[in-house]
Specification:
It contains nine helices and no strands. It is mainly α. Helix 3 packs parallel to helix 6.
Length: 208
């Protein structure tokens, strides 16, 4: 039962259009399915790790994150502004949709981009701390030693399913978009990413 709950939690948690989702979508559109898939898979692995670490040490994580919350927010805001600016520049270029071949060599860009967004985003830490506390409160992870690992893995799998579906759909169907629609999508993603950056910076001075 708790594995199904973890799968649903991981899937639903990945749906909102946050910085990571915007990055995965942009990678799928600007490059191809492979890049979007790698970014999404990286996000799913980090979901698993964050959830597992939260399950194994909720109190310790909370203390350490609170102490470094402001530097993390500053770093997150800067990273999101940079990505937003790059997306904005892309939206101003004439876009001609075309099929791209899968890259013949491995590229670390999608992985590094997602890792930077995750590490510098305190809200992700607190979300998984909440999820771990919620699961522990219901007694789902106390039955046997492997339960925390299985629950975290099911959460990661849920996110992996969502990111894979999004990457596949965007990479295979964005070629049907008109060039103007293509540019508007990048502009919307740029606005979304910039909005998250502003919200992050505001969170340093305002508590909401």
């Amino acid at each position: 039962m708790f594995l199904l709950v973890g799968l649903i939690l991981g899937f639903v948690a990945a749906i909102p259009l946050g910085p990571v989702n915007a990055f995965v979508i942009s990678q799928s559109m600007k490059r191809n399915f492979f890049h979007g898939f790698v970014a999404g898979a990286t996000a799913a692995v980090l979901d698993f790790l964050y959830c597992l670490i939260s399950l194994l040490g909720i109190a310790l994580i909370t203390v350490n994150i609170t102490r470094f919350q402001i530097p993390l927010k500053i770093a997150a805001g800067i990273i999101m502004l940079i990505i937003g600016w790059r997306l904005y520049l892309t939206s101003k270029k004439p876009v001609i949709p075309k099929q791209e071949k899968l890259p013949t060599s491995f590229t670390p860009r999608p992985i590094l981009g997602v890792i930077l967004l995750y590490v510098s985003n305190p809200s992700l830490y607190f979300f998984w701390i909440w999820a771990a506390g919620w699961a522990a409160g219901h007694g789902w992870i106390l039955n046997y030693a492997a339960a925390p690992y299985l629950f975290a893995a099911s959460c990661g799998l849920g996110g992996f399913i969502w990111y894979t579906v999004v990457s596949y759909y965007v990479s295979h169907h964005h070629h049907q978009f008109k060039p103007r629609t293509f540019q508007r999508i990048f502009l919307i993603l740029a606005i979304v990413m910039t909005g998250f950056a502003v919200y992050t910076f505001a969170g340093i001075f305002l508590h909401f």
